[in-house]
Amino acid sequence: MKNFKSHFTFSKQQRSGIFLLLLIILLAQGFYHLVLPKLMQTNQNFSSNSHEVSAFINQIDSLKAIEIENRKPKIYPFNPNFITDYKGYTLGMSNEEIDRLLNFRKQDQWINSVNQFQQVTKVSDSLLAKLSPYFKFPDWVTNPKPKQQIFNKSFSNTPKTEAQKLDLNSATATQLQKVYGIGPTYAERIVKYRHKINGFHSFIELQEVYGLTPEVIQNIKDNFSIKTPRSITKIPLNSATKEQLVTVKFIDYEVAHNIIEARTLRDGFKSLDELTKVKDFPVKKLEIIKLSLQLD
After folding, report:
1. Which contiguous run of DSSP H or E holds residue 293?
2. Which DSSP category does 72 fall into?
3. Model confidence over 144-195: pLDDT tens digits?
4. Which residues pair with 166 in a beta bridge?
5. CA–CA distance, 89 with 69 (Å, rounded to integer)
6. How far apart are the C-alpha atoms of 279 and 237, rounded to whole Å?
7. What range(s) does the Helix-hairpin-helix DNA-binding motif class domain occupy (predicted)?
């Protein structure tokens, strides 16, 4: 019995150790049953919130990508013959490529195919592939139709002197049909347009008559002259107001505003041809517009 009791007799240090061990066990049990579940719940909530934050960030990135795409310049069908400096820049063309195109057009030549556009501008195949789907050529280029005009057989190739030429502003439709390339329909269109503008001032205005090709216009010049040109009051380009500029045919308020802006930046235009550098300027109408403008 005495030996048995000896197993339950502890020194002061042993009793302190046993008490500390029991305390650790109790703390461990409390941590396991009380604290640990709360920590796990917190981790789950944090994980759940992380998924929500990630989803939100992905949504923001998607909206940013859409906005960036929307801000990119939109390309609409256009005739490559009338690409300006500004439009060429927005299309991704280099200055050299734009200059080649503008120099080609200054020679009064026209681009009538995708291949010819690349030959003139020397743009890369990748840029051509990007732009060519938006090229829009006139119907008479893309869908040429057989000529149905009946031309007068009395046409003469003999050059006429100025005195022999009739006044285009008084010529009848019958007289116009004596020119090679002009039938009854074209003759009627010329007379109708002449009446609309109160007489021609320059042969360049014949470009506004639908269907007339440069060759036919040259034939008209060979047989007619403008002996009684329409009077035009020219507007001083370097001092004109916006209200004055919009009175010129083919110049609207937006183009007039751009002209005045460019004029201010350039400290005045040195040549009427500099208008081709103005944003959104109708380059193909330049020669007609020049009839109503003059440098101060």
Report:
1. strand 293-294
2. S
3. 665 554 444 455 566 788 888 999 999 999 999 999 999 999 999 999 999 9
4. 224
5. 18
6. 16
7. 174-193, 204-223
How far does Cα 201 stand from its chain's mean position?
A: 33
Question: Which residue do the tokens 């001092």 mark?
Answer: 239
User: Which among 174, 207, 225 is the end of a domain?
Assistant: 225
Q: Considering the entire predicted model, what is its pTM?
A: 0.46
Q: What are phi and psi of 110, to 5 degrees?
A: -120, 145
Alpha carbons 46 and 61: distance in angstroms, whole number: 22
The answer to whether residue 4 sits within a structural domain is: no
Cα separation, 211 vs 186, whole angstroms? 8
- Cβ proximity of 186 and 209 under 8 Å: yes
**Among 166, 217, 215, 154, residue whose Cα is nearest residue 189:** 217
pLDDT score for 107 = 85
Rounded Cα gap, residues 234 and 292, in angstroms: 5
H or E segment at 49? Answer: helix 36-71
Which two three-digit tokens encode residue 256?
């007039």
20 and 51 co-located in one domain: yes
Contact present, 153 and 213 (Cβ < 8 Å) = no
β-pairing verdict for 235-236 and 166-167 = unpaired
Each residue of 253-272: pLDDT tens digit? 999 999 999 999 989 999 99
Domain count, the chain: 4
3-state secondary structure string, 157-201? CCCCCCCCCEECCCCCHHHHCCCCCCCHHHHHHHHHHHHHCCCCC
Dihedral sign computed on CA atoms, order 262, 263, 268, 273:
positive
In sequence order, the β-bridge partners of residue 236 are 294
Report the C-alpha gap between 238 and 22 in whole angstroms.
101
